[in-house]
TrEMBL record:
InterPro entries: ABC_transp_permease, LivM-like. It is found in: Cell membrane. This is Branched-chain amino acid ABC transporter permease. Pfam families: BPD_transp_2. The keyword Membrane applies. Keywords: Cell membrane, Membrane, Transmembrane, Transmembrane helix. The chain crosses the membrane at residues 7-26, 32-50, 62-79, 103-125, 132-149, 169-189, 219-241, 253-284, 305-323.
Length: 347
């Protein structure tokens, strides 16, 4: 088994301590940002598993996140709420049959729904590689979004779903982020993780060495999808609503920025990237309201909405110019692994 370093326990304890004390130091706005960062950490480390560690250029996480969000919302809403919300068509009997008040069960259903879909898609997706794989997965992500619009008896169509119970808080989002990171790191440094890296480096050579490349890629794909589905469930229970417009390609693009900025293949990089991207976009919001007035030079610049995105984009460009492999590259800080376990993985 993988041996955990003492520093690993220290980092976990520090993370848990931060989760416990944060509500006493941050207002509701700050807590909202922390919750989003925690959710994006779960999404980013899972997306990095298939895209960075396994080297499969997948562009469909928005689809899996949407599946998880809708699954969690539909099982948490009561029968009366569903009958009231569905205005375009009457809700399907299948939708009315499922209901639970258990948040953890809803998250499991959300993850399982995305995982089952990934297993079905893997038979089509992994028949191609490289840019073709990106196009196929992009297409599936778009299809899932369009299906959410065009099946109003299942999803209420473009109207979306409101009134979803707000179960998500920092204890849930942060706790699941910690579990996701530990799970992904243990998987990456296991024999399965080494097989994933071999596929990333040279799939033909990995196959020649006896690695079942389809099974390993499917393992990475389904694990990533499960955590993305759980992340979708957390997100909908943080916002209280879900609609197809939330899960366009822009969602995938943000996750892609996060893992590329942090370093493809680096779980640590995905964590840092989530903090910088999600936190940075909020922390730079003051630039949208910035006004500059210099009487001597007769300069009066009014506030410019969107200026924060310009500044954020410039920062990203500079980082990528001077760190083309991202902040961490494919390296880790080795929070959770001893030197021996990094070499040997699972026994």
């Amino acid at each position: 088994m993988i041996k955990m370093k003492i520093s690993a326990l220290i980092y976990i304890i520090l993370a848990i301590a931060f989760i416990v004390i944060a509500p006493h130091f941050f207002d509701s706005y700050g807590m909202g940002i922390l919750n989003q960062i925690a959710i994006y950490i779960t999404l980013a480390v899972s997306y990095n598993l298939i895209n960075g560690v396994t080297g499969q250029f997948s562009l469909e996480p928005n689809g899996f996140i949407a599946i998880g969000a809708y699954a969690a919302a539909l099982v948490l809403l009561s029968v009366d709420q569903k009958n009231d919300l569905f205005s375009l068509e009457d809700p399907s009997p299948i939708i009315l049959a499922f209901h639970t008040n258990s948040f953890i069960l809803a998250l499991i259903i959300a993850g399982f729904s995305a995982c089952v879909l990934s297993l079905i898609l893997s038979f089509a997706v992994f028949r191609v590689r490289g840019d073709y794989l990106a196009i196929v997965t992009l297409g599936f992500g778009i299809i899932i979004q369009k299906l959410a619009i065009n099946f109003p008896s299942l999803t209420n169509g473009s109207m979306g779903l409101n009134g979803v119970p707000l179960f998500s808080n920092l204890y849930w989002t942060g706790g699941i982020a910690i579990i996701a990171v530990v799970l992904i790191l243990n998987l990456v440094y296991s024999k399965f993780g080494r097989a994933m890296k071999a596929i990333r480096d040279d799939e033909d050579a990995a196959s020649a060495m006896g690695i079942n490349t389809f099974w390993i890629k499917t393992l990475a794909f389904s694990t990533s999808a499960f955590l993305e589905g759980v992340g979708g469930g957390l997100l909908v229970c943080l916002l209280g609503s879900v609609s197809p417009e939330q899960f366009g390609f822009e969602f995938t693009f943000v996750l892609l920025i996060i893992i590329v900025l942090g370093g493809l293949g680096s779980t640590t990089g995905a964590i840092v990237g989530s903090i910088l991207v999600i936190g940075g976009m909020e922390w730079l919001r003051f630039l949208d309201e910035l006004q500059i007035k210099i009487d001597i030079l007769n300069i009066n610049i009014e506030s410019m909405p969107g200026l924060r995105m310009v500044a954020f984009s410039l920062v990203l460009i500079l980082v990528m110019l001077f760190a083309r492999r991202g902040i961490f590259g494919d390296k880790e800080l080795n929070f959770f692994l001893s030197k021996n376990s990094k070499k040997k993985g699972f026994k």
